[in-house]
Amino acid sequence: MEGPSFSLPVTRIRPLWLAPGRRGSAGDAESDRELKTHFRVCRFIMETGVKLGMRSVPVATACVLYHRFFERVKLQAYEPYLVAMSCVYLAGKVEEQHTRTRDIINVSHRYFNSGSAPLECDKEFWDLRDSVVQCELLILRQLNFQVSFEHPHKYLLHYLLSVKSLVNRHAWSRTPIAETSWALLRDCYHGALCISHTPQHIAVATLHLALNSYGVELPVGEKEWWQVLCVDVTKADIDSVISDLLQLYDMEAKCI
């Protein structure tokens, strides 16, 4: 990389609760191991975001920052949990919900050490804080400062309101379509499908899967409901998103 040099935070600070994992063998085994790592780290981002009181969009931005970063660099070169902490910090700035580095560090520490007291403001703490900030600069440079993203959230909200008007209100109240759709959308951020599909297609696919899961049928017209809401989406696009999401659920089972 070009530009001013600085010591890489991931190699300089490794507290015990950020200990790196073992490197895997080449081939599919290593790829599978990396996917598991990314899944676990994104879950860490989401749980950390909840404990920090972050809204859903800043948390989603943190996950996208994480996936975009490791789209460009090798996992073995950087401590993924430290990158995740920096992504949470940066996402708070991008989405105007600024979170203090001290809070991020303490919440992360308790994530790995349940019930432990906050870290002392000693040299290790300040070194880690400096590492988070320096890693933030590294992420910005790797992403060429392109850190604003369009998320599926606003599209899903619009699609839900449109579909609700087509469904019998008693049938809608009996089935948690909205809650399930939002849960599926959140799960999409555990993997790279959140950056490999367009926001509109993800929104349509999560709603489509939620409707099918509860057997809710919409009135039949000249076009499918999803063609009316999103003119450029095809059934193949929907199936592709759902397939990637189901693979994430398979990954979750492997991570238990």
UniProtKB/TrEMBL annotation:
Domain Cyclin-like: from-to ranges: 43-141
Biological process per Gene Ontology, one example term: regulation of transcription by RNA polymerase II
Keyword Glycosyltransferase (UniProt): no
Domain of life: Eukaryota
Keywords carried by this UniProt record: Cyclin
Gene Ontology molecular function terms on file: cyclin-dependent protein serine/threonine kinase regulator activity
Keyword Magnesium tagged: no
InterPro entries: Cyclin-like_dom (IPR013763), Cyclin-like_sf (IPR036915), Cyclin-Q_first_cyclin_box (IPR048055), Cyclin-Q_second_cyclin_box (IPR048053), Cyclin/Ssn8 (IPR043198), Cyclin_N (IPR006671)
Described purpose of this protein according to its UniProt entry: May be an activating cyclin for the cyclin-associated kinase CDK10.
Entry similarity comment: Belongs to the cyclin family. Cyclin-like FAM58 subfamily.
Protein name listed in UniProt: Cyclin-Q
Source organism: Cottoperca gobio (Frogmouth)
Upper taxonomic lineage: Eukaryota, Metazoa, Chordata, Craniata, Vertebrata
